Amino acid sequence: MSFDEVPECIASRPEFTPEVDLDRASVYEQFARLGLRYGPAFQGIEGLFLGKGRVRSTLTETVPNDGYLLHPTLLDASFQTLIGTVLRDQQRGVYLPTGIGSIELGEAIQPGVPLECFAQLHQRTEEEISGDIEVFQAESRVLAVRALRCLFQPHPRQEQAYDSLLYRHRWDDQAPPAPAVTPVAGTWLIVGDAEGLGVLLENQLSAAGANVFHVAGAGPKSMREILASLPAGSGLDHIVHMTALDLEPAGAAVSQAPGCLSLMELAQALGGRSPRLWLVTRGAQSVAGEDVNMNQAAVWGMARVVVQEHPELGCTRLDLDPLAATDAALLLAEMRSRATEAQVAWRQGRRYVLRLDRFTPRPVAARAEISPEGTYLITGGTGGLGIVFARHLLARGARHLVLTARSGGAGKEAVLEELRRDGAEVRAIAADIGNPEQVRRLIAEIDAEMPRLRGVLHCAAVIDDGVLRQQTAERFAAVWKPKAEGAWWLHQVLGNRPLDHFVLFSSVASLIGSAGQAIYSSANAFLDGLAQHRRANGLTGLSINWGPWADVGAAAKGDILDRLAERGLAGLDPAACLAAYDELIGQPVAQVGVCAVEWDKFFKNFPGAGDSFYLPLAVHTSPSSGGEGNFLEQLMSLDMDQRDAGLRRFLREELARALRLKSPDHVKPRQRLFDLGMDSLTSVELGSRMQAVLGIRLPSTALFDFPTVEALGNYLVDAVFGSVTADEPPPAEVHGAFDSGDVSVNMENEQDEIASLLRLELAGGMQGKLS
Hints:
Blueprint: E1 20-23, H1 24-34, E2 45-50, E3 54-59, H2 72-83, E4 93-99, E5 102-105, E6 115-124, E7 128-137, E8 140-154, E9 166-173, E10 187-191, H3 197-207, E11 211-215, H4 223-228, E12 238-241, H5 258-269, E13 276-282, H6 294-309, E14 316-320, H7 328-336, E15 343-347, E16 350-358, E17 375-379, H8 384-395, E18 400-405, H9 413-420, E19 425-430, H10 436-449, E20 453-458, H11 473-494, E21 501-507, H12 508-512, H13 518-536, E22 542-546, H14 560-566, E23 569-570, H15 574-584, E24 591-594, E25 596-597, H16 599-605, H17 615-618, H18 631-636, H19 640-659, H20 673-676, H21 680-694, H22 702-705, H23 709-721, H24 732-735, H25 740-761
Parallel strand pairs: 10-11, 10-12, 12-13, 13-14, 14-15, 17-18, 17-20, 18-19, 20-21, 21-22, 22-24
Antiparallel strand pairs: 1-2, 2-3, 3-6, 4-8, 5-8, 6-7, 7-8, 9-16, 9-24, 15-16, 23-25
């Protein structure tokens, strides 16, 4: 048929029986997989019902009335409906409308009345499709589009090579720091330690000249109470946090997280104070493939976020040898030295330091195959990543899948039918994976009714992120239970049975940290430790630290990927992720990161990038070009008035950048930061930029201490050019600029905004924002 031969659209509402129906989430998930990422305003399809060359959609009833005869969102939703005719078998790429035979408007659209769109495909070639569209309200036709032509364009994004996305933690043997002979000055607080090491360290610090307070166990006392109990005027220069040493390995104690909760409370209780923080663990890390204490590993995950949200604490992590009675003198030597290493471990008398490096897969004799005779369990299986991997396993030959979620398959019937269309057995089973009894029932059902279980993919997750200052024990438990406890109970119930795959979906948050994701990072670090534990005990185990996926998951929504890209973390191509997965499940390794990082940009935005942890990557990174690198030097070359104006202009530019305002001119001196849209997360990001460019640290309480643009500008001018340092308390008159009655109101609004933003942005992490 030529496009000059325009078929007549029927005038009455057509009827047909669909073969597959998809809900809204599934429709736009599949569009995103193909490269069509529609924003919220253009997600007008509520349901899509597919037949052979025909499709019906239900459209949103709320049609804006802005003076249009036909609103663009309605027209676009009807175009999407025609594209839906080829949605099931479309290759990766986009269809772009390029021609229309005619458009006919019918009856006026009535607000609140459901709309239905019918599309008929008339022609399809490799290059284009064409068809007709009609939109009805009840029996009245409101729109007819004849001979709509759509040209196929392969996805424009350059495909990622999966082997360029792989990273690992590496422990390097390093000589101990040179011994120090100067006295240890200042006031030290030691918290925790039932094994007695704290007492030994207390004695050594006191003998070296320090003023030491030791709380052997926090018990019922909160960190605020502990800090408040210090004598008035004693100050606080160092905190040695040893609570993690009291943690047993996972097992009966898996629900305990006192080390993480204590560290979280400490960050909250310190307020504007900035003592040096030393975090001491024992066996939290696997230096050479040995077993780990997973509960202590989780504390390291939270610490990676402490470093980003509170760089003023200089958090140093020290992991002791679990097989040695480490002398307190070893700790004291590290604390007295001028060593700059922030992550240190001792094993068999040797000192190791942590590095982030690229991972190169080893050649393997044969690819890890998927058996059509086995069963594969995917927890969180009806979520975005769960469905992606269900499709992938089926494409690789699996015929028996179990997908679990707390709601089972409710609301996912259309997707499940799609997965079953080639005869595969796909069961959706309701189970709370963090409940051991439900896990036992789940595995018992699989054992009794399905082929042998050969593989587990643990994708379950709950995301409830926010900066450390906002977190609570209840929010911690909600995130920890499905991610960490769920993984543990799967491991416990399955015991030592042989599995081809036991894959834990972790996050880049526990690999390098992610501001706003302290709880998520700690739970994922538990997963990293569990994979190490299984490997050390002869079982299969792999933890993959996923970065944010471009077309699926929370990070694919809104402008989150753009915000992450500005910081140097690009979205992952799903095709590259699946290729990486296929490679990694056959590798003799317990933990690998999969993330796309532009290191030049990352180092520019993250002040902690100067940490030697990144040294293997930094040596291969070109210095940033342009004038930003010497901005402070340029300012210092100006006279005082020009310095002041230049620094304030820089602040307005950075605020506009962080808040995604169109111009710095929208930032007025006397505007309150909360009114501009500033929240705790953007405050952390702004602080990172201030440290990276100006070399100063904003106090963690900056939003409250300096509530207006002018007040924050005054502080920066004093901190950069005056006698005030970033660690000193702000002048009293600045505190007075913030009316205390406004704090609770603003914090309530801020809490809602951050919870909403971070559910999308930092999951999945820096998936969306990180898997």
